[in-house]
């Protein structure tokens, strides 16, 4: 790692010749065209209209690449030096988000816009630093070309992504987010917050010992999280239901289940039993309010119904824990 930080293998931009700058532009256009193609392939099954936008953008990048190659051959001949973005200090980087599946629609659109802005800014800044007239003109032309790419992307979206198509694709994206993260996470939070009330408060009132109560709550929370996570991941692979990756759903459910139980378990690290129990009860109300808010915000459950369901269930389990603990 240290050797890489102090390595001098990367060239400074100021040291590049016009020939190398043009070669760098060609390789950058090639890379961007392939990235757009990867975006298109990653979106094609679920968002065909957006995939076509990226197909068209890849075609535009290839046309610009061919124009740059023609200019290079005219000025320098047929041998294009091998120089890429990662060979040059300070050059903008491309995070390999195109390798991730499934692709997030909004993030992909935003990344594509950022790609074009980065390229235009880089060429503009590079043009301002050079004193060579030909190099300055070349970099300025490249900056204009990248700016035109942004305008072309907007034009393609207006042409291919009508309001109805965009609304449909955005709705599908929201649905997948809800099914993959919100729904299993909410189920986990409800299970962790409510189902652990009985064993935790039963242990608290039966023993009056904060440390033993903490251990009971910790074991109940972690155990419930593991159980919920594996159950969510194992019962549906997401292929037919469209609920997304079982691993992501399992992690969402398992982590939120554990958090739900730990919320009213951690106060029992306080040695004073009355204070610990008072803080734990207050946290229970916060947890129940959070569940109600999530149901209303993401699942569109009316406030009144969500609050009634959550408070009734929580009150019954809480009462069961106190009754058993005092038996």
Structural notes for this entry:
With 327 residues, this protein is an all-alpha fold. The protein folds into two domains: 2-161, Ferritin, core subunit, four-helix bundle (Ferritin, Up-down Bundle), CATH 1.20.1260.10; 168-325, no CATH class. The protein has helices at residues 2-5, 18-43, 48-76, 105-129, 133-160, 163-195, 197-207, 210-235, 246-263, 273-298, 303-325. Helix 7 packs antiparallel against helix 8. The chain starts with a helix and ends with a helix.
Write out key terms for the chains shown.
327 residues; 11 helices; single chain; disordered N terminus; mainly alpha; elongated; 0% strand; Ferritin; 2 domains
Tell me the Rg in angstroms: 29 Å
Q: State which percent range the strand residues make up.
A: under 5%
The largest sheet is: none
Assign the CATH superfamily of the largest domain: Ferritin, core subunit, four-helix bundle
- Whole-number average pLDDT? 77
Please, how many domains?
Answer: 2
Q: How many runs of DSSP E, i.e. beta strands? A: 0
Pairing-aware structural class of the strands and helices?
A: mainly alpha
Count of DSSP helices?
Answer: 11
Portion of residues within helices: over 70%
Shape category: elongated
Given as residue ranges, the uncertain stretches (5+ residues, pLDDT < 50) are: 1-7
Based on the coordinates given, report the CATH architecture of the largest domain. Up-down Bundle
Return the CATH topology of the largest domain. Answer: Ferritin
Distance between the termini: 62 Å
Topology order in helix (H) and strand (E) letters: HHHHHHHHHHH
CATH level 1 name of the largest domain: Mainly Alpha
